[in-house]
Amino acid sequence: MNETFFYFKNLKKKDVEQEREIHMLANKKCELKKKYDCELNKCSEEQQRLADVFLKIMKSEADDCEDNGHVSDSTTTASEGPELSDDERKPMNSFALASKVEGSRKRKLGPRATLGY
């Protein structure tokens, strides 16, 4: 601390003010950098979790397709895939179902729908 005092004492008054301002700005820069790094890490952690969830879903859907005997390759089309009976069909993944229904409008069912018209 004494070294700093003597250092400031030997400088002119204007230089002292500039030196203090430089130190203040350097400290502020350091604080902002720490805050930025912290926010950047939070963002990347959230993105990493979302990516992990997405990969798990994609992997489970790929495993389901392989379990059903349907393997996608560039030489076959969807119509050439294995024929599945109603018992063999698995219900759609709830995440995929929610994403498809979320943007669509639901149709109101009236008395005609219950009568089979």
Overall description:
There is one protein chain. With 117 residues, the protein is mostly helical. The chain has a domain of 34 residues. The chain is built from four helices and no strands. It is rod-shaped. The N and C termini lie far apart (91 Å).
Relevant terms:
117 residues, mainly alpha, 4 helices, single chain
What topology does this entry show?
Layout: H1 2-10, H2 13-67, H3 94-102, H4 111-115
Percent of sequence in beta strands: under 5%
What share of the residues lie within helices? 55-70%
Mean pLDDT level = 69
Radius of gyration (Å): 32 Å
Beginning-to-end CA distance, first to last residue: 91 Å
Q: Spans with pLDDT under 50 lasting ≥5 residues?
A: none
**Global geometry:** rod-shaped
- Count of strand segments: 0
- How are helices and strands ordered from N to C? HHHH
- Please give the count of helices: 4
**Pairing-aware structural class of the strands and helices?**
mainly alpha
Q: Largest sheet, if any?
A: none
Brief synopsis:
With 117 residues, this protein is mostly helical.
